[in-house]
UniProtKB/TrEMBL annotation, chain A:
The active site is at C88 (glycyl thioester intermediate). Transmembrane segments: none annotated. Keywords: ATP-binding, Nucleotide-binding, Transferase, Ubl conjugation pathway. Residues 2-150 form the UBC core domain. GO terms for molecular function: ATP binding; ubiquitin conjugating enzyme activity. Belongs to the ubiquitin-conjugating enzyme family. It comes from Zygotorulaspora mrakii. CDD domains: UBA_II_E2_UBC1, UBCc_UBE2K. This is Ubiquitin-conjugating enzyme E2 1.
Automatic annotation (TrEMBL), chain B:
This is RBR-type E3 ubiquitin transferase. GO terms for molecular function: ubiquitin protein ligase activity; zinc ion binding. It holds the Pfam family IBR. It catalyses: [E2 ubiquitin-conjugating enzyme]-S-ubiquitinyl-L-cysteine + [acceptor protein]-L-lysine = [E2 ubiquitin-conjugating enzyme]-L-cysteine + [acceptor protein]-N(6)-ubiquitinyl-L-lysine. Residues 63-93 are annotated as: Disordered.
């Protein structure tokens, strides 16, 4: 069967090129349809220093149909769902060609971390953050990298981190509304829905908008 | 309401009470006898078919086994009775043509030939460029004059470093036979490959696999390794002869989809015809006047260009869409309506309907009753089938809940009559299916010329158009203000057409060729009458719509 041959060959090619810093292995040796790949976060980006794990499903028609890929590692990126890890990338869809390999697809994902496409977002909330306030976005993305994209899974754990910080929201804004009697979680949810990260206390229109959202 | 009752011929047999007693079961068809008039011997029909949802256009298609044999009939069938417009309106018919994908492809090839001396590149390359520009000559020429080179590279017709081509690698596009070649796609050792000027070489098996999926997408297919385009001859070379046809077909498909203002597929199942409307802006005027935008394809299927339904005058597209939506919503409660067998109200033997005749005679107890209302036949008298007007009970001051119940019942009544006419139309078609044989029988046994025999298919066509108009008129009636005088006039028109249709329908059941010839004049007269009544009903329906008496709320 040519699919098996091709996948074995692809695995060898990855092993033969350690300089690329890409890993590719079966989840289970008896199942050639399920692999995990990983690569390093590109230097000079908020993803630097992280190791990103990608789940790969190889369809029956591979390589004539693209593999299904999604991030196992939580990533804060406009083209990657912050919830499911789903990826929006053309070569994994209509622009797939049988000459593309799992390795080259992983390299494309690495390139995607380097240069997001906020106008074709997978995660609208993150994309908005990216477009509105790059500096704040970078901080959040770097925080996620530090929290989640660490080797051998010894994660710091989401619970230990402040929820507001996790979504790049100014903790003072959350506290402000908490002091008005709203629950912290609800405030963060509302601010995320509205895409608001920080607030000028004199901006009454926005304050009203948030209260309205909270009272829904 | 009382005027309706006092109206002499409107001896409405429909009563709410009667209706309540109606069995709501869906009868499975399984009996034999059907009946109708005294003049015509009743015939037995053994094979029964059940009719299901009435709203799929596919359902409206009848068997076309005899189609090829009867082809000449179809082409000349409009000779006997010429009509100014399909629905009798004063607007000119829509200007359109009926095409097949092959017709369109031939035209595209002509355009390519036309462009060839201008662009002076191979015709095959122009075909590719046209594909890329959705067959728009203008856009192609525009881009060509601005940046021909860029266009050729972008379309995969030319490589970025064209100079390399002949000079260095000297590769010729085509199938290669190799001693041993490890294909980078499947990683197998292969002997037959396909190589292009770019140097990318893959085994033909992989190419076959790759191309197969892309043939249905209508886009340019490129080298697996780069953007160099495969031409039709390459595709045929790899896939076997005429595979590129499939690609051209899907390309034309996407062309039709993208130009759906002027191009529409015939919605009938398995029909490959495309209607090309010359002037799409004329549709607006039709819509404004609540006129029907009907077109007929090469296979003689008539449908509405806008909504894709069958001919639905006097209803306009909005009435149709509201009606169909409502029917879909209610259909589960109304399944029983679709039954086309009924129990005899007297002895409960199952009786099947044959042809479009509503006059039923029980095969067992000989009880005569009306198919639509189930009531005794006698009060229907000589005015034939007049169950065309819903009669609501006069009791005033009922609660809202009762009003709702009444609204549903009113709808149910119209829905039921609507369906009865649809079923009748189909049964008429079934009877008329052997029309070609009948005409031949006339030719052989009575010595009638082919042209002379045309009154048969022609009258069948008129009958069907009459039934269809009648059917949709109940959708119009449902949405019309029942208290308005014009609504009553409309109901009168429905009744007149209904009677005319039943009359002609009875004639259509004569089997004996000699009797048919003897009554030829009757065929002519009755068909002509049906046609007049059909147009009158359509005109009246348009008035209801134009004056806002017929309104759909949703
Ligand atoms: Zn009969
Ligand atoms: Zn191969
Ligand atoms: Zn190539
Ligand atoms: Zn057709
Ligand atoms: Zn329509
Ligand atoms: Zn009976
Ligand atoms: Zn009746």
């Amino acid at each position: 069967m040519s699919r098996a041959k091709r996948i074995m060959k692809e695995l060898l090619a990855v092993k033969d090129d350690p300089a690329a810093n890409i890993k590719l292995e079966f989840v289970n040796e008896s199942d050639i349809e399920h692999l995990k790949g990983s690569f390093q976060g590109p230097p000079g980006t908020p993803y630097e220093g992280g190791i990103f794990l990608v789940d790969i499903e190889v369809p029956m028609e591979y390589p004539f149909k693209p593999p299904k890929m999604k991030f196992d590692t939580k990533v804060y990126h406009p083209n990657i769902s912050s919830v499911t890890g789903a990826i929006c990338l053309d070569i994994l869809k209509n622009a797939w060609s049988p000459v593309i390999t799992l390795k080259s697809a992983l390299i494309s994902l690495q390139a995607l971390l380097q240069s997001p496409e906020p106008n074709d977002p997978q995660d609208a909330e993150v994309a908005q953050h990216y477009l509105r306030d790059r500096e704040s976005f970078n901080k959040t993305a770097a925080l996620w990298t530090k929290l989640y994209a660490v080797a051998n899974g010894s994660t710091v754990g989401q619970k230990q981190v402040d929820e507001a910080q996790l979504y790049g929201i100014d903790p003072n804004v959350v506290e402000e509304f908490e002091s008005q009697g709203f629950e912290k979680e609800k405030v963060i949810d509302a601010l995320r829905r509205l895409g608001i990260k920080s607030l000028d206390p004199t901006d009454n229109a926005t304050v009203n908008k948030i209260v309205e959202e909270l009272l829904k | 309401m009382s005027e309706v009752e006092s109206d002499s011929y409107l001896s409405l047999v429909y009563e709410d009470e009667l209706y309540d007693n109606e069995s709501m079961e869906l009868y499975e068809s399984q009996t034999t006898a059907v009946h109708c008039t005294d003049e015509i011997p009743c015939h037995k029909f053994e094979s029964l078919q059940s009719y299901e949802s009435e709203f799929d256009i596919e359902d409206l298609q009848f068997d076309e086994e005899d189609e090829s044999e009867d082809e000449p009939l179809r082409e000349q069938s409009t000779h006997t009775l010429d009509k100014p417009s399909l629905d009798g309106s004063n607007l000119p018919n829509l200007r359109y043509e009926s095409l097949t994908t092959d017709d369109i492809f031939q035209r595209m090839l002509q355009r390519v030939d036309h462009l060839q001396p201008v662009l002076s590149i191979p015709a095959e390359d122009i075909l590719l460029l046209m594909q890329r520009f959705d067959w728009s000559e203008e856009r192609l020429l525009e881009d060509w004059t601005e940046k021909a080179d860029e266009l050729l590279i972008g379309s995969g017709l030319k490589r970025v470093h064209e100079a390399d081509k002949e000079g260095e690698n000297g590769l010729v596009r085509g199938i290669k036979h190799r001693e041993s070649f490890t294909c980078p796609i499947c990683c197998e050792d292969k002997t037959e490959t396909f190589v292009m000027e770019c140097g990318h070489e893959y085994c033909t098996d992989c190419y076959k696999h790759y191309i197969k999926d892309l043939l249905n997408q209508g886009n340019i297919i490129t080298c697996m390794g780069c953007s160099l385009a495969l031409k039709n001859e390459d595709i045929d070379l790899i896939m076997g002869s005429a595979s590129s046809h499939k690609l051209m077909d899907s390309s034309i498909r996407s062309f039709v989809t993208k130009h759906n203002r002027n191009y529409k597929w015939c919605p009938y199942a398995d029909c490959k015809c495309i209607i090309h409307l010359f002037d799409a802006s004329s549709l607006e005027e039709y819509t404004r006047l609540h006129c029907s935008k009907f077109v007929t394809c090469k296979s003689n299927h008539s449908f509405c260009f806008t909504c894709g339904y069958e001919m639905h005058a006097p209803a306009d597209c909005s009435v149709v869409s509201a009606w169909v939506k409502k029917a879909k919503k209610e259909s589960e409660n109304l399944n029983w309506v679709l039954a086309h067998t009924k129990e005899c109200p007297k002895c409960s033997v199952n009786i099947e309907k044959n042809g479009g005749c509503n006059h039923m005679v029980c095969s067992s107890c000989k009880y005569e009753f009306c198919w639509i209302c189930g009531g005794e036949w006698a009060p229907h008298g000589n005015s034939y089938y007049q169950c065309t007007v819903y009669k609501s009970d006069d009791d005033k001051g009922k609660s809202d809940k009762d009003d709702l119940r009444k609204t549903l019942k009113r709808y149910t009544f119209y829905y039921r009559v609507f369906n009865e006419h649809e079923v009748s139309a189909k049964l008429d078609w079934k009877l008329g299916q052997n029309i070609g044989h009948k005409v031949r029988a006339l030719q052989e046994s009575v010595g009638v010329s082919w042209i002379e025999g045309q009154f048969l298919p022609e009258s069948l066509k008129i009958l069907n158009e009459g039934r269809t108009a009648l059917k949709w008129s109940f959708a119009v009636a449902f949405y019309s203000d029942p208290s308005h005088n014009l609504t009553k006039i409309f109901a009168d028109n429905q009744l007149l057409l209904s009677n005319a249709v039943e009359d002609l329908s009875q004639l259509r059941q004569i089997q004996d060729p000699e009797t048919i010839m003897q009554r030829k004049t009757e065929f002519y007269n009755k068909a002509g009458y049906v046609e007049n009544r059909t147009h009158a009903l359509m005109e009246c329906g348009r008035d209801l719509l134009r004056k806002g008496i017929c309104k759909t709320k949703d």
